[in-house]
Description:
Two copies of one chain form a homodimer. Chain A is α/β, with parallel strands linked by helices. The first copy, chain A, has two domains: 4-146 and 280-290, Rossmann fold (3-Layer(aba) Sandwich); 148-270, Rossmann fold, CATH 3.40.50. In chain A, 32% of the residues lie in helices and 27% in strands. Chain A has nine helices and 16 strands. Chain A has helices at residues 12-22, 60-76, 105-116, 133-136, 148-158, 172-182, 224-235, 254-260, 282-290; strands spanning 4-7, 25-28, 30-33, 39-42, 50-54, 81-86, 119-123, 141-145, 163-166, 185-188, 190-193, 199-202, 212-220, 240-248, 266-269, 277-279. In chain A, the strands form four sheets. A six-stranded parallel β-sheet of chain A has the order 2-1-5-6-7-8, with helices on both faces. In chain A, strands 10-9-13-14-15-16 form a six-stranded parallel β-sheet, with helices on both faces. In chain A, helix 8 links the parallel strand 14 (240-248) and strand 15 (266-269). In chain A, helix 5 (148-158) crosses helix 6 (172-182) and helix 7 runs parallel beside helix 8 (254-260). Chain A is globular and about 60 Å long. The two termini of chain A are 13 Å apart. Chains A and B meet through strand 4, helix 2 and helix 3 of A and strand 4, helix 2 and helix 3 of B.
Amino acid sequence: xxxxxxxxxxxxxxxxxxxxxxxxxxxxxxxxxxxxxxxxxxxxxxxxxxxxxxxxxxxxxxxxxxxxxxxxxxxxxxxxxxxxxxxxxxxxxxxxxxxxxxxxxxxxxxxxxxxxxxxxxxxxxxxxxxxxxxxxxxxxxxxxxxxxxxxxxxxxxxxxxxxxxxxxxxxxxxxxxxxxxxxxxxxxxxxxxxxxxxxxxxxxxxxxxxxxxxxxxxxxxxxxxxxxxxxxxxxxxxxxxxxxxxxxxxxxxxxxxxxxxxxxxxxxxxxxxxxxxxxxxxxxxxxxxxxxx
Amino acid sequence: xxxxxxxxxxxxxxxxxxxxxxxxxxxxxxxxxxxxxxxxxxxxxxxxxxxxxxxxxxxxxxxxxxxxxxxxxxxxxxxxxxxxxxxxxxxxxxxxxxxxxxxxxxxxxxxxxxxxxxxxxxxxxxxxxxxxxxxxxxxxxxxxxxxxxxxxxxxxxxxxxxxxxxxxxxxxxxxxxxxxxxxxxxxxxxxxxxxxxxxxxxxxxxxxxxxxxxxxxxxxxxxxxxxxxxxxxxxxxxxxxxxxxxxxxxxxxxxxxxxxxxxxxxxxxxxxxxxxxxxxxxxxxxxxxxxxx
Lengths: 293, 293
């Protein structure tokens, strides 16, 4: 494949894997941060007509400014087609004004990305009331891949015969897809949230007594939902509880929170670089690049 | 004056002063930061046709995302005319590619602000090769005010008969303007920069022996330029060296650096809230609001 993959230093590993799988050249964007917080970025002096930028958007705000700088500069250097691979896409949760005047950041950030990039590729975006990525990110092409099959394959190898449990109703379709591929039993919990870090979880009816359970979710953020679910599953007699997530966001002390609840292993994809990474989305992202129009 | 002034909590003081001087209503933008770094912002449920947003852009990246969110949401709530007051304007220094491929962030950020706001008002923007703010920020109205007269008035009261010294040639016009108003002697140093924090300064010919010297600059960032200049001025026999700046950015240990060099007092405007604030730009900003078309 022709074209160039630009990446930032902290995503060097994933960039290299995508570039190898897609047979592209990968070049690092040089980045300097001044003491006053301003960024100085440097691109290759000459760019081809098609350029792909890899930038996952965990801890998103500074990275959104990087996207603005890189995309505008790439255009001024003559790039005709610009693709963003954001394995983790931020600001997808706030999709309506829950009180009047609340800013619908999904719409604003989605529109911002669409104004900068011809194509946006992501993995398991956290969409609620908006079902298609293109409704949230109205770029010419907006492609949402799913890591559920990859995680299901991993679970089939590590915990054959496990019960898959989604921590809330929103995970239903996604856990169902993972379960179907390998014939796993599955169910989802009912979640009640009382704040950023306070959640309560009600287990599904399905018995987990004596069984290996894998909690599956698209994102592990504060870890409180996973921790509450794990505690209840163990109290209900589960033989073991492991966790499989697409995005290992793990803000603050999330990892400690999850492990303290009795979770055995945590497996994640490399959408966000993290010690728990156990399966790579690089081949899937490379395929998606190859299928762009 | 009709219209509404929106502000963020950390600029409450300056917002109140501007609103009182301009006879406007000031309302705080509600801001919540989730553990994963995403922002949730809330505006008043109804907005008038003309809205002013106060947001200084020191440590700019997260604040640029706030501007995007607020401006887009305000438009979707029907605001027809949107003004940004950014007492400190970021990303004005990088105004050309020093090596091929280097991103000209002044152009990108300036264009971004112009795409969001009808009018942009700032104080002493740090422009080098671009002389007019409208060339850097192509908004319908781009207004650069100067705090030099305010600082000159302060110096006239605190250090009558002082010599004004600018730390580099770029300060020349600005120091000259401050000096002219009160008949101060003045001159500028010659600066050589070897990195973010390494600078050397050559004193001007003007004798400072036995005289009170005030170092004036638009911005105090790392503090190294001011510190080097102060040391040399004291070594050349200056009776005292004080510092007057528009923007008290003072990144990292800058304040310690400056004081350790023997500087007596530091005076700044309230463009950036800081313990050194000694004079307010609020009346000047309010007047500029009143003169907008």
